[in-house]
Structure formats: C-alpha cells, structure tokens
Write a structure and sequence with these properties.
alpha/beta, Arc Repressor Mutant, subunit A, 2 domains, nine-stranded mixed beta sheet, three-stranded antiparallel beta sheet, 15 strands, globular
Amino acid sequence: MLDYFWFDPTRMPGIYIHIPFCHQACSYCDFHFSTQVKAKNDLVGALAREIHLRRNYLKGKPLTTIYFGGGTPSIIGVDQIKELLRAIADNHAIEINPEVTLEANPEDLTSEKAEALIAAGVNRLSIGIQSFRDEDLRLMNRSHDAKHAVQSVRNAQAAGFKNISVDLIYGVPGLSDDDWKKNMEQVFALDVQHLSCYSLTIEPRTAFAKWIKEGQMRSPDEEQSSTQFELLMDHAPVAGFEHYEISNFAKPGFLSRHNTSYWLGEPYVGIGPSAHSYDIHSRQWNISNNASYIQSIAEGKVPLEREELTRSDKFNEMILTSLRTAWGIYEKRILENFGEERAEEFSRKADVWMQKGMLELRDKHYVLTRSGKHFADRIAGDFFILLNKNNS
C-alpha cells in the first residue's frame, strides 16, 4: 500500500540537463530537439559552462537528483556524460547516493553502452520504448523495433541497472485493447521497476497533427484511450506497481525522485536549450535554439527569460501538480500558504467534486478517485477559474 506521507518536506533540489539531439523526429513529439548532431561537442561544452554560470541558482543546497533528458541523451558519448557529471560535481554539493537518471532510446542501449553508463555513475535509466508493436513504432517513426525494445532492457539489467523505467503510449490509432494488454504483459514480464504510460495527445506542429488535418490518419479515440487507461489501472497493481501519479507507476521504493520533486514544488535548475528552472519565487527558461544558446554561453551569458510568480501562479501550480499525485492536496498547506478565505473557497469547490465521486478526502488530503483521474486537468481547471476571479 502506497504511503501517502512518504515524502520529506526538507528534501533537496535537483538538476536537469537537456540534450537536444535525436536520431530522427518522432511523429508525436513537439519537444525541442535537432537531428543535426554536428554541434554535439560544442553543445556539451556549453552545457558544462552553463552549469558553472548557474552554480549559485540553488543557493548552495546539495543536489539529490541529476536528470539527463531530451531529446535523446543516450545519443551522446559516455565520455561526454562523464564530462557533465564532473562539471556538476565541481559546481554543486551532492548528497550521498543521488538518483542519476538518463533517458535512453533502445537502439542506443547496447551491452557495452549500458555497462559504460553504469560505470560512469548513471544509476537509473528511463527507456523510451513507447510500444512493443512494430506497427505502432513505424507509425510513430521510432528508430527501433520491438526486438530492440526487449533487448535494451535485458542489456541494461545484465549491466547491473536495478532501477529501470519504461515509457509506453496508449490510445494510439490501430492499437486495440488486446494489443495494449500484450504491451503491458511484455513490460511486466521484463520485471522493470517503473512505468510511465501516456495517452497519445496530438500536439500542434507535429507530423500526427499534419496527417490528421490532411485526412491521412484518424484522431485518437478518447473512449478507447479511457478504456486502455482503465486496463492499465487494473493490471499494473497486480504486477506490483503503485499508481503514484496520473501517468506514473512504481514498484515499492522506486518512485522517480526527480520527477516527484517537480510535483512537490521543490526547486530545480535546468541546463541547456529550452530547459526550465524554478526557485519557488520565479520560473526561468532558456532559449530554444541550439546555435544561439552555444554562442550566448560562449559570451558568458545564459540566454533566458524570467517570470516572477504571483500568489495566484503558485496556487495554480500547486493545484495542477499536487492533484495529479497519489498524496493529493494537503488542506493545511492551502490554509498556511494562501489564507483562510482561499482555503474555505477551495473546500467548497472540492465538495462539489466529492459529491460527483471525483475527489475524496483521505487523512486531510484531497485525492482524485479512480474516476477522477480521467478528468484531472478539467478538475484542476475548475479551481483555476475560482482563483482567477480573485486576481491575486
């Protein structure tokens, strides 16, 4: 049974390193990346320099998590991963036994690469498998096939990785409920520790959006996506996974410490093109252009924009992130941080959703019910509307 109070409010921050390179463009992806890797060495050098330039952002607090995301971090060499880890160690205090995650594509995880990564200090892998069906992988324009997907996990396990997360996507056109069950059966059989499972969404400026507009592909079926989410919630607990965030499932002791810090509103620093940083009072984001980023860092300037967060912003973010988690929203936190009037207003609105069976009050925490998990964004948005009326 998941302990809803497992987290420690004194937990320390994390660092995110954005590696903006991919082998090819996935049909569903709208993240910042480039398939042109000629500037890879220059980019890694710039990342190391930004780590130094931003060394005071977290005010000397030691790091508990390091996360290489992208893009596809596994596309760069292990020596470059080591270079960035050295830069982090040279500029930050680091807690004992930090969680060091690297996102990887299956085709990059050869036995040799997996062994080198664990020797370099990476202790957690997030493998972007997305599906064990070749039909889905071709539709998504992934650069691996189902055989590579399975082998990548086995290579990582043989190398000594004991904390492996796998990404899967459901609601894909052509993916039947039986196909989705087979995907789940395959990942359960691989005995990984963590799952991140996402309903396919169509983002603007992606190949999927273009194909749907041109009639070459049908839109995802919301009812089918909902059914497949239900199947996931049925089968994952049987396989030993705890559903601790809308899209995330973990075996006991293997919650993603880095991502959980985001959901708990803890500070973090983001390094690289398009990376975001958060210090509780403001949010910053770097320019989403590799060449301009490299040039600016070479001149000793971090190319970023900054937004000061109002009380309303902070409330909205707390609702958006906390409501998605298994521990939900602690009613005392609203009272202490936003005042009695807002806490009472929140409680009145929450009562409406509780009467609809979408929320429940569990040990003074407002938590989404199973039905409510299907409507998390809609429920959160209802609280935003309530807040924005106050405009504070």
